[in-house]
Model the fold of this input.
Amino acid sequence: MTALSVGAAHALVAQPVAPSTPTAAGTLITNTATATFNDETNTPVPGPNGGPPSTSNTVTSTVQAVPAFTITPNTVDRTPVSAIPGAYVTFNKYTLANTGNVNGDSYAVNSGALDLTTISGKTVQTPGTVYYFTHQPAGPELTSPGTNGGQTSLSFTNVDPGSTKDFWVVYQIPTTATDGSVYSSNPVGHRNTNTSIPNNVTDGSAPDDTNNQNEANITRNDSFSVGPNGFAPGNAPAGTQDTTTSPGYTIVASGDNQTGTVNVNAGQTTLTFTETLQNTGSRTDSYALATKLSGFPAGTTVKYYLSGTELTSATGITIDGTSYPAVTNVAAGATVNFTVQLTLGSVTAPITTTPVATVQVTSQNSTAAAGGAGGLKGTPDTTTDTLNVRAAAFGDYLGNVLSTTPTQAQNVTPSTSGPTDVKYTMAVSNFGTITETYVPTTAGTTINQVVIPVVTSTGSVNATPTPTPVRFYLADVNGEPTGPELNSTNPLSVPASSTVTVIGVVSVPSTAAAMNTPLSFVQQLLSSTASPTGVPAGTAVTTLTDGTYTISGTTYGVPNSDQFTVKSSGTLQMSGPAGTGKTVVNCGKLLTDCATANTEVTTNDVKPGDYLKYTIRAKNTRNGAVNTVILQDILNANVNFVSLNAALLDGLGSTVTGLPANFAYRYAAAGSSVGTAAWAQLGTGFSNSFDTTGAPMVVSAGSTLQIAVDSANAQNVIDTDDTVSAMHTVVVTIIVRVK
Done:
């Protein structure tokens, strides 16, 4: 070794070294110099204890505090993320590094002011609460950070130089965020004062790190569509049929509309439509439901169902303080079917406008974006449900008003010249929205037909003849039948929302029997309308009964039995046609010849002592039985009464036997009242008796004879029980002898 010589110049060249962690604050850097030398004998001089012979004083340097830290990435290094409204965004990751020389530093991290107020010309907006995690968040930490460990600020302690701390930022994009907007937060770091630096080193200061802004670019898509079943975009091909919603019905779709038909008269007032809703937006959404009704009768109700469960405002969503039925939590891209159930109110008047239900669907997401107050915001999508309504009433048309309560009761007197028409003014009011055609119903013993008892040729009454049909005709301006009869080949056509007057006609035959009680029948029409859109052929045929109509399963009014009463006509005929009236036969001088003499005349020549046979015939030509029939004959003063007989003949001239042909008689002398005389049974006949001079001993000349039908009980009391049937003839034979 060569000793350093005074005046010699040497240079130490610094060699490159790898970067290292800075010397910690408070570190003491000490230095002491030593010297060795040889004596004059060139012998090294030893130092104390074997050390250098000469030692300098110690020089001490204390390392001062140079605090510093960084948070990365900085604003300029940010990596933008894309987000949708309502979503939580995460920025991975921030690193805080102690780049100073102070051991055990501590730091606070929280959200500070932004250092960029605009990005790409857009004003940067701040979110709500910003949450911090010291580990990579996952699961519920990303959806509900506030209740799953997220902190609004961080505190890091005991961070030595060269050490780092990682953290993550999570915050929610407001649901009101608009498309293209920018949201950002700025994690700001602050170093806390360190009072624990050794060797009484005074802490320094480090500026806050405030340029760590992140960037979330918002893409908002709240689009959706609603339309007919299976066609959310509203593009159903014309004529598309849906039979799944309402069994027995066919819903027909075209474009963005569905059409169905309800037959109110058959009690069908509820129709259900299936709507398809598709979320074409970028996030889960809920949809408020509302329906505008046009043309529906008062009392119409709307209900919504999802998988059989009714959707109500109580279980729906609230927008601006108003609750709505809703289809909730529809994932982005998902399709959901819900149903709209329409139930008509009472159809008691014409529906002049085709009922259309406009179903409005509004996105809750887009509503939030629109903001404000006063009802649903955003732009709803709509689809329409159209109803064909079949509803009509049929009844008596009185005073130009269709009535469901009166009964048209009439009296009719049969004519001997032919049938007599009884006419009933009726009307069909079509309350519905389609033209209806009707034909008379043919079923039922009292439907559109009436059994009219008739008098037979024998005079008896046939109570069950072939029913007489009710025929229908259009009414002219005078309320009289016009045109051909309405039937299956000529149906009645009634336009929508109109009333057509018809005349029901019953032809009463000339032989109709008089009745004490009205004959009743019910008028009824049957729809022959071709199957309208929305109802399969043969479904719920409409029957209209006089006086009734059915709404929602409830029948209003009662079936009206229109009536007519056949009144009596004709008389007890004693002159006119052959077989009635009074005739005489001259039997000659022998009484026994009266049994065979039959040349009946009304005028003849007689001689004293001749026997005359008078025949009186009284025929009941009325259309019903008569009672209390009494025939009277006053004997001429020039004849003596010989005998009396009576018989009853039916309509064919056959003799009636038994009680119906029972007779009683009485008489009174000239000048006396026959009405006070007692009746006696005629039996097989009554004969006078004479004295030896030939003078009558019982019935004198000029007496009054009365013969009565005593058919009830042969009790010698002639009253209303004693009847003579129609077409029957009472025949009385009186034999006298000319004085």
